[in-house]
Design goal:
By secondary structure, this protein is of the alpha+beta class. The protein has one domain: CheA-289, Domain 4 (OB fold (Dihydrolipoamide Acetyltransferase, E2P)). The protein is 15% helix and 40% strand. The protein contains 3 helices and 10 strands, in the order H-E-E-E-E-E-H-E-E-E-E-E-H. A hairpin with a 2-residue loop joins strand 9 and strand 10.
Length: 183
């Protein structure tokens, strides 16, 4: 990775840290980070974002689900890396200069867990009131909407809010070696 690109990611992480400190302002609503996955716009609560890293090939894990790319060593913590493009069954995408890994954190059973998510690029940070988030429309039984928490309109574009507790849940990873059966 070039030093210029490393500088951009260091600046993004500093901006995220500063934004996380400002999130407590009640008048501004909740802050979200939006990003591109397969040409679609998604968002997560910015408080769930640990950091943003440039694309690097994770260490492969044998017998892992198809959408788990491997693991990264994040300052001594081993973090699984999920490719959201393959998790959402989008067409296979290339790893470009804009491809990043967003390290997300969730609290599960009072324990913090980290997961890296490969996305095509980071888009924006924006504020949104909870009242401006619409429910996920009913699609019928053919579409799996368990990973979505709502839909927002940002600059006349629909942005899907992800339900991280379900998306990053190991219980919902269907794979023969997990012992999970969601049939």
């Amino acid at each position: 990775m070039t030093s210029e690109l490393e500088g951009v990611f260091a600046e993004q992480n500093q901006n995220l840290t500063a934004l996380n400190m400002d999130v407590g302002d009640e008048d501004k609503g909740t802050q979200f980070l939006s990003f591109d996955v397969g040409g679609e716009e998604f968002a997560v609560n910015i408080l769930s974002v640990q950091e943003i890293r440039g694309w690097e090939n994770p260490t492969f894990l044998p017998n892992s689900p198809f959408f788990i790319k491997g693991v990264l060593n994040l300052r001594g913590t081993i973090v699984p890396v999920m490719d959201l493009r393959t998790r959402f069954k989008f067409k296979k995408a290339s790893y470009l200069d804009t491809t990043v890994i967003i390290i997300l954190k969730v609290i599960e059973s009072e324990k913090e867990r980290l997961m890296g998510c490969v996305v095509d690029g980071v888009s924006d940070v924006f504020n949104m009131e909870e009242s401006e988030i619409s429910e996920v429309p009913e699609y019928g039984s053919g579409v799996d909407s368990r990973f979505t928490a709502g839909v927002m309109t940002v600059d006349d574009n629909a942005v899907t809010l992800l339900e991280l507790s379900k998306l990053l849940s190991l219980d919902l990873i269907e794979h023969p070696y997990t012992g999970v059966s969601n049939g």
